[in-house]
Write a structure and sequence with these properties.
This protein has helices at residues 2-12, 17-29, 41-56, 99-106, 149-156, 173-179, 213-223, 257-267, 281-300, 312-316, 325-339, 344-365, 397-409, 424-429, 459-476; strands at residues 36-39, 68-72, 110-115, 162-167, 182-185, 205-210, 246-250, 272-276, 370-374, 433-437, 449-453. 37% of the residues lie in helices and 11% in strands. This is Amidase domain-containing protein.
Length: 491
């Protein structure tokens, strides 16, 4: 895989980190996808020369030595502007590196650029950044997904072999699915969030996007582990790589045939399969957006306190001009949920749905090792496409309560909130999830991704399952045109 090929070549002296990073910088500076917001040529080249010196001294080994990495622009970098895609942070220059940046450096990787993202990670289409939209290298005129749009586009477009993104309700998995890359959302608590510009602190995670499972696994191994600066990180190592045998298959709603076929193809890689249902699927997505808006309003006040009205009435007087319209609308919802009398009832109902989702997932994993499902209920949309409202779901008292909740919150939800139908539930439960591209699934040539989900902290079991699926799908694919994105950039 790309990372291993680069690191092995650097370590054995066949090339240098300086040469590899120089190639990457040239590609990043020629970005035509709107994927990159800033490049640190001087810093990256200096770091590459340091890596080469450490290699010559025999002090650096591992799969990331000399590997160029790009990171989402909501991850703090010391003395390097971090905007989170917003005018509100146009002049924010952190005085410290995020924990994940420190760990990449310790592994011998070289951070070269910051990538575009939806404003404060609020978006699923890659269109709300103050720097403009990100284009999809694999599907011209269609969304690359969000909010980690630039990270996915950078990998898919051959600008870098691997990238970091953040995932709050699907923001790594959706862009990976719509750009034909691999996106991994670790368990909540597996990777430090120190230095991440917070959106929804109870679901935010940092994870990798790459061209292969091997590449994202190598990055995860470098990032995972305890951090004294983040008390939400688990102190124990994630579980080992026991190979899963039983897959639960979740297919719900009116899905495109190519998506259904792709899910069934991936599920067929496991010896045993069983159908699964998640009755609270649509309500989970709505509950996620209620929780996210509420936490976002509180979190963003720390960055731009003077610009944050404290009530819905204050918002009605005028949107603060430092926020884009989608970000402002979500913050208005958060203000209403937290600031008005009785509005918190919706927030507490969202927490009830969250608990219901966790119970349903425990029931599924009592009989299965892995959950296989779509990443999104549709293929990459055109930038101006929108979706109909979510279906209320089946009958019964519980379904009726979920339907009432959906009716109550639907008018305030983002127009495209159904993009998160199949990703929000794993975020609410803190579970690890990975997106795999399924080659040749769409007759229109559009990328199709399938999601694997595992129990919390069984991240390495999930990665083992993803390796198995990727290997079996490669063995079954006789079309040589379907190669990994970015597979031959360097070697």
């Amino acid at each position: 895989m790309a990372c291993r090929r680069i690191s092995e070549s650097v370590v054995r002296g066949a090339t240098t980190a300086e040469s590899v990073v120089g190639q990457a910088l040239a590609r990043l500076e020629g970005d035509r996808f709107g994927a990159v917001v800033s490049v640190d040529r001087d810093g990256a080249m200096e770091r590459a020369r340091e890596v080469d010196l450490e290699v010559r001294r025999g002090r650096l080994r591992g799969p990331l030595v000399g590997v160029p990495v790009v990171i989402k622009d909501n991850i703090c970098t010391r003395w390097w502007r971090t905007t989170a895609g917003s005018r509100a942070l146009a002049d924010f220059v952190p005085s410290y590196d995020a924990a994940v940046v420190e760990r990449l450096a310790a592994a011998g990787a070289v951070v070269c650029a910051k990538t575009n993202c939806d404003e404060f990670a609020m978006g699923s289409r890659g269109t709300t950044s103050a720097f403009g939209p990100t284009q999809n290298p694999r599907a011209a005129g269609r969304s690359p997904g969000g909010s980690s749009s630039g990270s996915a586009a950078a990998v898919a477009g051959g600008l870098a072999p691997v990238a970091l993104g953040s995932d709050t309700g699907g923001s790594i998995r959706l862009p990976a699915a719509w750009t034909g890359t691999v996106g991994f959302k670790p368990s909540y608590g597996a990777v430090s969030r120190r230095g991440l510009v917070a959106y929804c602190s109870s679901t935010d995670v940092i994870g990798p996007i790459g061209a292969s499972v091997e590449d994202v696994a190598a990055v995860f191994d470098a990032l995972a582990g305890p951090d004294a600066g983040d008390e939400t990180v688990a102190t124990a190592r994630a579980a080992g790589e026991e190979l899963p045998r039983t897959a639960a298959v979740l297919l719900d709603g009116d899905l495109p045939g190519v998506v259904v076929d792709a899910v069934r193809t991936v599920a067929s890689c496991f010896p045993k399969r069983r159908d699964a249902s998640l009755p609270s699927l649509a309500a989970a997505c709505a509950a996620y957006h209620v929780c996210a808006a509420s936490e976002a309003f509180s979190n963003l006040a720390r960055h731009v306190v003077r610009a944050m009205p404290r009530s819905r009435a204050s918002w009605a007087e005028g949107t603060p001009d430092c926020f884009g319209p989608e970000c402002a609308r979500r913050l208005e919802l958060g203000a209403r949920l937290l600031g008005e009398r009785h509005a918190d009832a919706l927030y507490f109902r969202a927490l009830d749905v969250r608990r219901e989702v966790a119970r349903s997932l425990r029931d599924i994993f009592a009989h299965a090792d892995i959950l296989v499902c779509p990443v999104a209920p549709h293929l990459p949309p055109r930038f101006d496409d929108h979706l109909p409202p979510a279906d209320r779901g089946g009958g019964g008292d519980a379904a009726s309560r979920r339907g009432d909740f959906l009716d109550a919150v639907a008018p305030d939800l983002p127009a495209d909130y159904r993009d998160d139908d199949f990703t929000a539930f794993a975020s609410l439960a803190g579970l690890p999830a990975i997106t795999l591209p399924v080659a040749g699934s769409s007759s229109a040539g559009l990328p199709v991704g399938v999601q694997l989900v595992a129990r919390r902290f069984e991240d390495r079991t999930l990665l083992a399952a993803a390796r198995l699926v990727s290997r079996l799908l490669r063995d079954d694919d006789d079309d040589d045109d379907h190669e990994e994105p970015n597979a031959s950039i360097y070697y």
